[in-house]
Amino acid sequence: MSVYDRILVPLENSAYDEAILAHVKPLARLCGASLVLIHVADGWAARNLKQLQLRESAEMREDREYLDRVSAALAEEGFDVEAVLACGEPADEITSAAERESCDLIAMSTHGHRWLKDLLYGSVASSVRHKTMTPVLLVRGTPPAQPVKDE
User: Are 129 and 91 contacting, i.e. CB atoms less than 8 angstroms apart?
Assistant: First the structure.
C-alpha cells in the first residue's frame, strides 16, 4: 500500500484547475494512485435539483461535459480516473465525496484570497480543511491573465 491510493481532486471549471492537476499528476504517478475528479454545481437549479425534482440545467450539462473532457485526457495519459458531478454546497459535497469514495487525500487549488475577500466570498478550501479528517493538499492557483486594454 502506498501513501496515497485514491486522490479526490475538486475542479471548478476554471484556469485554477491547471494548477492542481499539474501537482497531482506526478504525485498520482509516484504513488500509483487513482484520481476522483469532482465538480460541485452550486447554482440555484443544482442546489434544488432533488427537492424540486428539477432537470439538469444547461450549466450542469456544461460542467458534466467539462469533467468528461478532463477525465478522458487524464485516462489517455494513463491515469485511473473517475468523475463525479455533485450538487449543493461545495465544501459539504467535497468532504462527503472524500469519505464516500474512500479517498485518502483531497488535493485542491486555492485562489489565495486574503482577509476581506475571504470574509466576503468565503473559502471553500478553508471550509474543507475544517470539515474533514482526510489530509488536504492546497496549491495556490494563478489567476487568469487579464485582457490588455488598448488605449
Answer: no
Bridge partners, 109 (sequence order): 139
pTM: 0.82
Q: Cα-flanking dihedrals φ and ψ of residue 93, to 5°?
A: -70, -40
Separation CA 49–CA 86 (nearest Å): 11
For the record, the C-alpha cell of 111 comes out as 485562489
Task: Compute CA distances 42 → 19, 93, 114, whole Å.
Answer: 22, 10, 23
**Mean pLDDT per 10-residue section of the chain, whose length is 151 residues:** 89 89 96 96 56 59 91 98 90 95 94 51 77 91 58 49
Read off the C-alpha cell for 140: 495556490
Q: Which domains does the chain have, with CATH numbers?
A: 6-140 (3.40.50.620)
Task: Output the nine-digit C-alpha cell for 139.
Answer: 496549491
CA 43 – CA 21 distance, rounded (Å): 24
Q: Which amino acid is at 67?
A: L
